TrEMBL record, chain A:
Protein name from the UniProt record: ABC transmembrane type-1 domain-containing protein
UniProt keyword annotation of Zinc-finger present: no
Family recorded in the similarity comment: Belongs to the binding-protein-dependent transport system permease family.
Pfam family, one: BPD_transp_1
Cross-referenced InterPro entries: MetI-like, MetI-like_sf
Organism, scientific name: Ectothiorhodospira haloalkaliphila
Gene Ontology CC annotations of this record: plasma membrane
Keywords: Cell inner membrane, Cell membrane, Membrane, Transmembrane, Transmembrane helix, Transport
PANTHER family assigned to the protein according to its UniProt record, in alphabetical order: FE(3+)-TRANSPORT SYSTEM PERMEASE PROTEIN FBPB 2, INNER MEMBRANE ABC TRANSPORTER PERMEASE PROTEIN YDCV
Keyword Transmembrane helix annotated: yes
Location (main, coarse): membrane
Cellular location(s): Cell inner membrane; Cell membrane
UniProtKB/TrEMBL annotation, chain B:
Highest taxon of the lineage: Bacteria
Classification via Pfam families: SBP_bac_11
Alphabetized UniProt keyword annotations: Signal
PANTHER family membership: ABC TRANSPORTER SUBSTRATE-BINDING PROTEIN, THIAMINE-BINDING PERIPLASMIC PROTEIN-RELATED
The protein's name in its UniProt record: ABC transporter substrate-binding protein
Gene Ontology terms: cellular component: outer membrane-bounded periplasmic space
Amino acid sequence: MTPELRALRRHAWLQLPILICALLLLLATGYPLLLLFAQSLFPDILGGSLEGFLDPYRRIVETEALGQMIRNSLLWAGAVTVVSWIMGIPCGYLLARTNLPGKLWARLSLLVPIMTPPYIAALSYILVMQHGGFADTLLGGLPDGLRAWFFSFWGVTLVMALSSFGYVALAVEAALSAIPRRLEDAAQMLGARWYQLGALVLVPLLLPAIFNSGLLVFLEAISNFGVPAVMGTRANLPLLPAEIFYLVTSWPIDLPLATSLSSLLCLFALATLYVSRWLAAKAGGGTLKASESALHPLGPLGKCLGWGLFLGLFLLSAALPYAAMIITSLADAWGEGLPALTLGHYQAILAPGSRGLEALTTSLGLSIAAATICVIIGGYIAYVNVRSTGPLQKLLDGLAMLPRVIPKIVVAVGLILAWNAPWIHLDVYNTLWMLLLAYVVIYITDALNYSNTSLTRMSPSMEHAAAMLGAGRARVFFSIVLPQLKPALLAAWVTTFIVCMRELVASILLLPPGADTTATFIFNQFEQGDITMAMAMATVTIVLTTVVLILFRVGRQEA
Amino acid sequence: MLTLVILAAGCGDARQADGDTLVVYSAGPRPLAEAVVSDWEASTGHRVELFAATTGQIMARLEAERYRPRADVVVFASALAAESLKQRGALLPYQPEGLNHTHEAWHDPDHHYVATSAAIVGVALRDGVGTVDLDWSELMSGQTGGRLTMPSPSRSGSAGEFVLAYKLHHGDRAWDDYLAMRRAGLEFSAANSQAIGGLLQGAYQAIVGAVDYLIYRQVDQGAPVRMHYPPSGSALVIRPVAILADTPVEDLAQSFVDHYLSLPMQEKVAAQHLLPARTDVPLSPARAGQGLPETFNIDTAEALEQYRDVLRRFQIQVERAEVVPAGGNNP
């Protein structure tokens, strides 16, 4: 063997792990998305024909209702972002810059809506606002104008913004805490008024945080399926993800149109990402050194107003929907005023052999399996990624990023195509395996993120030392890297478990007929008019996942 | 991921190459589908893999499996679904035994699909509501009094076909009728079962767009309801069976179709209160008195062409529209 060949072999051997990781991600994420995009361009490409090039897109352009719907979706996501800014930025400012008492509670009040799945909040709001709902029962009739307003563009916007303004508040708080007060003080000393201070100093410094949190909210809104499907239909506001869902699941099926709308949705998400990154890079100049700084003292009126804001937002974003959810789940028979209470619905969904219990066990099994697989594979991929360089690493990085940005519904539609292609000889579609695969593909980014953060802080010197002492690749990974990664992976496991337990859109698209997860159970029961069962299941799911989260937090503090 | 794939390979049921198994996708009622399948298995000794679901779910699965077909025989609850597959060239023509004993007009003229049975979508009334000559216009304008419901056409295939057939029969006047019905306080139920539940409890006095065999099932059990066919016509919903063009077991598929049209199976069809395709099988006692009512004469190809547009327009302009109720604001 020539030395050159030996060097090449050695190089290939060194590159093997990253090659495997890249191939895995390509197969799991790249391939379905590529197929989806290809089918949207050539509707019959899977049949081996290139006919009808751009036909679905032509239909989108020609059909007035579709164009209107796309504009609506973009406008709606924009409106959700703006409303979230309006709610979230003052909260962030109060937390970072003032001596508002009880900040811990204020922060906690922001976390509750973030942790609530938006579709459950939307269902609860419908219970409050519909004809004969809580508002009617307790307030004795809601003005028709208010109800009409709620079941319209702005009502749907409000509900979505209420479940996402917390991101903005926390991001703004973090950014403000990192910005020293010197600039503000200097401006004040030079005689700047409060509005000049805000417009000329604070807002420009905060722009990156505002853009980044806005990006998160916009992406979440434009790709959210639950709120448009639950409330959008009642508000006569067709939005992209819900329409894609109907095109894929209800007869007459139109997969080409669904794939082209999915591609557009994907494009919007990617464009938003790049534009906001570009804007944030333009706006954010230089690094600032954080400094301990005096907090802005609030007068009694200021404190009252500050607490009023947090309390009001908490009432709307958490207390009201949760109250509606819990009371409905306990309601026996509705008469005048409040109903008699019963635990019957919980017994019904938890009885052995009932559909509810079946859904719960399916969800539990799938979530545990998905979280475990995500953590193992995600941890390894992150490790390989951090410790490698070169073009393959760039590809891996890009591939791993994809599911973070691409709407879940798009991934799900891509998976349907990918696993029904003529060259696939496995019957994965219409089995629970399909859903497990989808969960892993969609949520592996969480495991990657957590591991990445902790890996970049880890010095490779220990691994080098072990390798020099003769430890093989596997031994280095399992004995040195994994133990150090454990806390991050545990956090990733809990997060993945919780999001899988509540996952709606991939489940509803990919579940085999006859099977249910908790989320599809809630969705279907509500659609079938059995609201009490739906809300009992929602309560059980939220309590269960919250308990898991608390146990994990407590365990970590003790460790 | 690799382990996943391997596991999936282990559990997945790769298509049998021995030509011994027939894959059947069938729309409900499930007990009927299961009975016909197990009877065929017993008489031929072959195995059937049955996938029982709604027509919508079956179409979604067929669409997803378009380039990797698995089904050999499909039973739909709608001729439109079969027609769309026929137009795509996905069905094999076949003339089963006993065709001359059936309602010829129900089948595809080229026999790409043949009817196994049919149902009629009309009005279900509580006893004492309406008269024998109650017609659509009277019902839809709310003159019968009492509360009306309709299974949501986007959820219930039979209600969807009714909305379409009524529109094709009456032209654009249908939209005025639909809106009048909303103003008269019509509520939408999520599915047939919910509408029927409301009718039995007395929450509603009438179901517009009720599929008759489900109502006869209630009548048979002594519920105080009856099926009514307005004199100007009702919607006939054919339930066809078809053989998929890619089937590797064409002979088995044909034998299954023959079996579905045999006398004993058609008697099972009639026992579900459906209208059997064969004319020499007696109707179920509950429906025998009604005979075959007047039905809208609809061209299947034209109906298929308009299906999506009509349903979409119905959904946006009727079902979800804000309509001010005629009598007060209490729906």
